[in-house]
Specification:
binds zinc ion, alpha+beta
């Protein structure tokens, strides 16, 4: 997550549905002929204003229509929300998701104003140069170069209409996809006399450029500073959606095992993907994880589990017993291990799944023995074929807990 480098972190809070087909397809502009499942961005904005239940005021909202026409995403800094189509939202590279987030945090396109003599940024980076305007024009970020809109530059050179979509073969005309470089012998800024663009691969790779989807993911230090300043300067806007660092140490759903038999519908605590978690053995005596502020436990040398930030098997991002953890994206903010979970209450040590093959209680049964992992598998019941079962759970002290379930068709 590019924003983490600037101490901006996100806590997942869940999702919901808009119960309407009007926004399956969202157009950038109002169209004369919109189908029943289509709408425009401005109509969607009006809808949200009239239906505030679809805007979580304590969170940054992503609204995800099935598809969009004329844009992939849109970010609104004053409302802390974005629209991103489902295709872009599911893109593992996350370029659109992050680009719109950049707008939410007050970043402009790196080429902003490039065609307008009153707003265009000059190439010079020398503050002593009378042509220097990088701190005040374009995206107002000095460490991003003066640059054109790579997507549309060729179409503008050919004087094609601004309100028409640039044909595919002319888009990103001067970019080299192989190494994300820019070369246009006729590319000049708007200073007098015009200066040739000095565009590095970092500029082509910038998240806020209009650039190739395979190139544009990075942010500069200057953009990081601009985001942090905006957050600090807008306390009333950000206070409702600001959370504590300790919230990153809380599961986004599920529960910790406390004591006694595991409920059949038990779901283990799951942690947010996108962070790297290092779990080491800890001691002693926290049947539920210790409070975030409590660092009085001891941490041993053993790596109990490691979860990389790229992990996509979300059910695997759990907190093992007898372990505390560190989030590796917070090396200076929270350098210590936290949340020692050291629970010696016993879960079942094994058990038996008894299937009544005729779906009535008779002697035509199939027995399946389960070890502790099998009997404690939270998906034990979910994974059973349909039918009538008795499940026996055996405890270390000899106790047996029986439950009967009828599993419906999946
Ligand atoms: Zn944008």
């Amino acid at each position: 997550m590019k924003f983490n480098a600037y101490n901006i972190f996100f806590k997942y809070t869940g999702f919901d549905y808009i119960n309407s087909t009007r926004f399956y397809i969202i157009h950038r502009f109002n169209e004369d002929s919109e189908g029943p499942n289509e709408s425009s961005l401005s109509d969607f904005t009006i809808f949200l204003a009239q239906n505030p239940e679809y805007m979580k005021s304590d969170a940054l909202n992503y609204h995800i229509p099935r598809s969009t026409i004329g844009f992939a995403g849109a970010g609104y800094k004053s409302q802390l929300r974005t629209v991103v189509n489902s295709f872009s939202f599911n893109d593992p590279n996350g370029r659109v998701v992050n680009h719109e987030l950049g707008h939410v945090f007050n970043l402009d396109h790196t080429f902003l104003g490039w065609e307008n003599e009153n707003f265009c940024e000059h190439v010079t980076r020398d503050p002593e140069d009378p042509n220097f305007n990088a701190d005040d024009k374009g995206d107002k970020v000095v460490d991003t170069a003066a640059m054109p809109d790579f997507l549309n530059e060729r179409c503008r050179e050919l004087d094609m209409p601004v309100n028409e979509v640039c044909p595919v073969e002319l888009r990103y005309f001067y970019l080299n996809e192989g190494d994300c470089t820019y070369f246009n012998p006729n590319g000049f800024d708007c200073s007098d006399p015009p200066a040739p663009y000095q565009i590095s691969t970092e500029d082509v790779r910038n998240l806020m450029a209009y650039t190739l989807g395979s190139c544009g993911f990075d942010l500069t230090t200057g953009q990081g500073v601009r985001m942090r300043e905006y957050i600090n300067d807008q306390p009333s806007l950000y206070a409702p959606i600001t959370n504590t660092i300790s919230s990153l140490y809380e599961p986004y759903k599920g529960d910790y095992y406390l004591a006694g038999p595991l409920p059949d519908d038990f779901k283990p605590a799951l942690f947010q993907p996108g962070f790297s978690y290092m779990f080491k053995d800890c001691c002693c005596g926290y049947p539920q994880p210790s409070d975030f502020e409590d660092t009085s436990f001891t941490v041993g040398p053993h790596v109990v589990k490691f979860v990389d930030k790229t992990e996509t098997v979300y059910e695997s991002i759990t907190h093992p017993n007898h372990a505390a953890f560190k989030i590796l994206q917070l090396p200076t903010i929270v350098p210590e291990y936290r949340k020692c979970y050291d629970n010696w209450n016993k879960a079942p040590i094994g058990g038996t799944v008894i299937k009544f093959n005729d779906n009535v209680f008779n002697n035509n049964i199939t027995l399946t023995q389960k070890d502790s992992t099998g009997i404690n598998n939270p998906n034990l019941i979910q994974n059973l074929p349909s039918g009538l079962y008795k499940i026996e759970k055996n405890y270390e002290d000899g106790a047996i807990q029986e439950s009967v379930i009828f599993k419906e068709n999946n």
